[in-house]
Amino acid sequence: MDLLDSPAEADFRARLRAWLRDNVPAEPEPAALADRWPGMRAFQKKMYEGGWVALSWPKEYGGQGLGPMEEAILSEELGRTNAPTTIPVSHLGRPILSHGTEEQRRRYLPPLLSGDEIWCQGFSEPGAGSDLASLRTKAVRDGDDYVITGHKTWTSLGAYADYCLLLARTDDAAPRHRGISAFILPLDLPGVEVRPIVLANGDEEFAEIHLDGARVPAANMLGAPTDGWKIAMEVVSYERGAVDIGYQAKFEHAFAELVTELADRRDDPAVLRRIGRIAANLEVLRMHSLRSLSARVAGGAPGPESSIDKLLMTEVEQHLMGASLELLRDRRAHPRSEWFDRYLYGRAGSIYGGSAQIQKNILAQRVLGLPREPQA
């Protein structure tokens, strides 16, 4: 695999760098999500209007008609700037792009990409997090509507969202993986209540969604009835990609900050060892992301091997943030500092997006072909 930019990719990178120089705010974004949210939305809209969002998507739905390599370059270059955190849109828009009707694509995708409408992902439930197939939220057909009752939790950006990509069981008689459907749920409907969850760092990044007889038009079903599991697997495959959700850029930017903070200790062997290990882990993540992208350039889509990305992302994040607390303990790594907030968030990496145990099971069974462990 050739890891050097082609002439066209080099030109794209140069144009992107010039645009970022002119458009990235000079001041760093605030640490608290509530304080940085307006800037995140404003920068998302600016990137969309500049043609830097959904680079590999068709132009008719708000994309640029380019490829995965341009998306990787975008992620790398964002990581080298002081750009506001980007709003994760790709993994939620992909199923609309691939399973939505033409009307759904044209209605929902452009405002999702621009940040004019915010989306969240209604998958996890109490008792149905990593074991998603055991979800109990139900959708019952009633004329032209589905009546939905249930409870979702750990919904990322739920407190800020306008729409939710919701999974609900529509067929109790079918095997549990096949009786699930996906819906486009407006969060302002009667019978929908969103309750923010305050995290250890004080952010309200997650929320619970309570559904008490919410009526959703049947036209808001995404894909065919019982396509929900297939759609869910597509979402999480993109969600676990470091490039797709901008995690690679976030880690590279944080690492650059850490190296700058420790510039006066560059002769300390203990510091150099920790920095070297982080740099090696970041490079492994970057190279594996490029390997995954090369398959997509050839026309593929992410599959179960994306669980490797998720495990690598978790290792990089937790080691990077843990090292920051140790190496900066006499400076900024105190409670309520930005580094401490990042550390607290990184501890959840072993759980969100599918726990580490689930990722290893996926790799064992679906990539390596190993048998399931016999049930007691």
TrEMBL record:
InterPro entries: Acyl-CoA_Oxase/DH_mid-dom, Acyl-CoA_Oxase/DH_mid-dom_sf, AcylCo_DH-like_C, AcylCo_DH/oxidase_C, AcylCoA_DH/ox_N, AcylCoA_DH/ox_N_sf, AcylCoA_DH/oxidase_NM_dom_sf, Mycobact_Acyl-CoA_DH
Keyword set, alphabetical order: FAD, Flavoprotein, Oxidoreductase
Domain of life: Bacteria
SUPFAM superfamilies named among the record's database cross-references: Acyl-CoA dehydrogenase C-terminal domain-like, Acyl-CoA dehydrogenase NM domain-like
Reaction it catalyzes: a 2,3-saturated acyl-CoA + A = a 2,3-dehydroacyl-CoA + AH2
Cofactor entry: FAD
GO molecular function: flavin adenine dinucleotide binding; oxidoreductase activity, acting on the CH-CH group of donors
Gene3D superfamilies for the chain: Acyl-CoA dehydrogenase/oxidase, N-terminal domain (1.10.540.10), Butyryl-CoA Dehydrogenase, subunit A, domain 2 (2.40.110.10), Butyryl-CoA Dehydrogenase, subunit A, domain 3 (1.20.140.10)
PANTHER family in the cross-refs: ACYL-COA DEHYDROGENASE, ACYL-COA DEHYDROGENASE FADE29
Protein name as it appears in the record: Acyl-CoA dehydrogenase domain-containing protein
Gene source species: Mycolicibacterium thermoresistibile (strain ATCC 19527 / DSM 44167 / CIP 105390 / JCM 6362 / NCTC 10409 / 316) (Mycobacterium thermoresistibile)
